[in-house]
Amino acid sequence: MTSLERLRLAVALAHTVRGAELHLSTDRGEQIVVSHHPAADIDPCALRRVAAASACPTQPDYSKRVVDITFGGTLIDLGGGVFSSLRDDVARRWVVTLLDPQRAADVMEDIGLEAVPESAMRASLKPDSGLGVTVLAISVNDARYHYALDEIAAQVAAAFFVEELRRSAIAITHSNNRKEGAA
């Protein structure tokens, strides 16, 4: 994963999840706090614009200066690409992917979570076309299935990651085939 992809994913979460914070460490030892809080160094909307511009070949790519990203505020990093938040007594799990919303939905359909009724959980895809990412929020509709929230979120995150790797490998193969054909 490139530094720009990693930044795009993190910024999308901070921009989407109310009360989330990012803590960025730069190659110059700077610590940058990203939040909607007035004491923050930069708000998520402004950093979103920077990250989107960094993807443009005519603009500088500031993502290469970010050496570490940690999450805070209302967002807890559970590991494996899964994040947690609690708002209005509703527990949510968040997963962010480089997949477009339709492919993310297709991947979720293929997971096969037969142990939990479909009506017990709610999933909401939030595309961010400016960053080229999709954020997924998962919550429980039926408290009896709260125990499964982390496991389901982890399965979805893993499936997204596998699909991202598969697509990356296909893109590399196509690129190499074009180079060989041009030679």
Strand content: 25-35%
The total domain count is 2
What is the helix fraction of residues, given as a range? 25-40%
Q: Uncertain segments of ≥5 residues (pLDDT<50)? A: none
CATH architecture assignment name of the largest domain:
2-Layer Sandwich
CATH top level label of the largest domain? Alpha Beta
Structural class by sheet pairing and helices: alpha+beta
Q: Sum up the overall morphology in one term.
A: flat
- Rg of Cα set: 18 Å
Quaternary structure type: single chain
N-to-C CA distance: 28 Å
Described by strand count, sense and barrel closure, the largest sheet is: 5 strands, antiparallel
Task: Write the SSE topology.
Blueprint: H1 3-16, E1 20-26, E2 31-34, H2 44-54, E3 66-73, E4 76-79, E5 82-87, E6 90-97, H3 101-111, E7 121-128, E8 133-140, H4 149-182
Helix pairs in contact: 1-2, 3-4
What does this structure look like?
The protein has four helices and eight strands; from the N terminus they run H-E-E-H-E-E-E-E-H-E-E-H. The protein is an alpha+beta fold and 183 residues long. The chain has a five-stranded antiparallel sheet with strand order 4-5-6-8-7, with helices on both faces. A three-stranded antiparallel sheet has the order 2-1-3, covered by helices on one side. The two termini are 28 Å apart. The mean pLDDT is 92.
